[in-house]
Design goal:
The protein has eight helices and ten strands. The protein has helices at about 10-15, 70-75, 110-125, 150-165, 180-190, 210-220, 260-280, 295-300, and strands at about 50-55, 80-85, 90-95, 130-135, 140-145, 195-200, 220-230, 240-245, 250-255, 285-290. Helix 3 (about 110-125) packs antiparallel against helix 4 and helix 5 packs parallel to helix 6. It is elongated and about 80 Å long.
């Protein structure tokens, strides 16, 4: 029987997304008021500049590139020449925990994260940069070192697909609340500095340590959080008894009581609000992805390009 890609992704399906990556970019081109939280422009730096040489001023050179100290010292006009950085490695952190195995409309959150990561990997490789990743579930963390090769991308997609296909409602796993933090620790050790780090997750189980790890990671790298959520998380619950929970635990809750409805829906809203507030406290950006909508269309819409705006380092 053919696999339902809304529930589990195959390696072939992830590879087929290569063509979809054309035209996307993670350079800092979002305008103010973009969907990166409704108020924030992207904080991604884009490629930096490398100093190449100091030479005599030539007609046609930009006067802003004149080095006035060297000019005063030598008695003739000198300019500094810079070239754009040719390599900006990227690290994709992909969440495939059991908490991601949920979907009320179109995809499981785990599928949306897997598809978005595959599209991003192909786009980054197509731009000529190295790409690698950290793929994790409730029990393991797998590292694929950043390399500029299709083989490396395929290895990353294989790791994502393998963990994705291990997700089943009846699967018994030992829940590890700190697994997201463990993945971020591995990302920090792998990325070092001057990487583009993209985290695809619902950020279930975040705590103060999560914020500290992201702050440390963002101090030396560009960090983009792709917040995967299900539409039901933003909906009001009907005033009836319902069975709620996740793959680890379930319980019957009486939503006919207003206080109960507010407590349950409010918890989810507060968690999402906390993640968006990181943009005020940490040098990163948040891009929401709904599991109830087509992954590619969302990425196209949210990364739609305008005139580039480089932020100074």
């Amino acid at each position: 029987m053919e696999q339902d890609h809304r529930i589990h992704v195959s390696l072939a399906h992830l590879r087929s997304l290569e063509a979809a990556a054309a035209g996307l970019s993670f350079l800092p081109r979002q305008p103010a008021g973009s969907v990166l939280s409704g108020r924030h422009a992207s904080r991604l730096r884009g490629r930096g500049l490398n100093f190449e040489e100091m030479r005599n001023y030539l007609p046609g050179d930009d006067v802003r590139s004149i080095d006035w100290k060297a000019t005063a010292r030598t008695g003739s006009a000198h300019v500094r020449v810079f070239t754009e950085e040719r390599d900006r490695p990227a690290l994709l952190v992909v969440d495939q925990r059991m908490a991601m195995f949920f979907g009320s409309q179109l995809n499981m959150k785990s599928v949306t994260a897997a598809e978005a990561a595959a599209i991003s990997a192909f786009r980054i490789l197509g731009a000529g940069d190295r790409v690698g990743g950290i793929v994790f579930n409730d029990e393991a963390v797998r590292v694929v070192a950043p390399r500029r090769s299709r083989r490396s991308v395929f290895a990353l997609l294989e790791a994502i697909s393998a963990m994705n296909n291990e997700l089943h409602a009846e699967r018994q796993v030992r829940h590890r609340p700190g697994q997201l933090n463990a993945a971020l620790d591995r990302a920090a050790r792998t990325a070092g500095h001057d990487h583009l780090v993209l985290v695809f997750s619902d950020f279930d189980g975040i705590d103060d340590d999560t914020e500290r790890r992201l702050r440390s990671l963002a101090a030396h790298n560009d960090v983009l959080l792709l917040l995967v959520h299900d539409p039901q998380a933003l909906r009001e619950f009907p005033a009836v008894k319902q069975v709620v929970g996740n793959v680890r635990a379930q319980a019957e809750v009486d939503f006919s009581t207003p206080g109960v409805r507010e407590a349950v829906s409010g918890y989810t809203r507060r968690r999402l609000a906390d993640i968006h507030r990181w943009q005020d406290h940490i040098d990163l950006s948040v891009l929401p992805l709904s599991a109830g909508e087509d992954t590619l269309q969302q990425l196209r819409q949210q990364l739609r390009q305008h005139a580039p705006r480089r932020r100074s380092r």
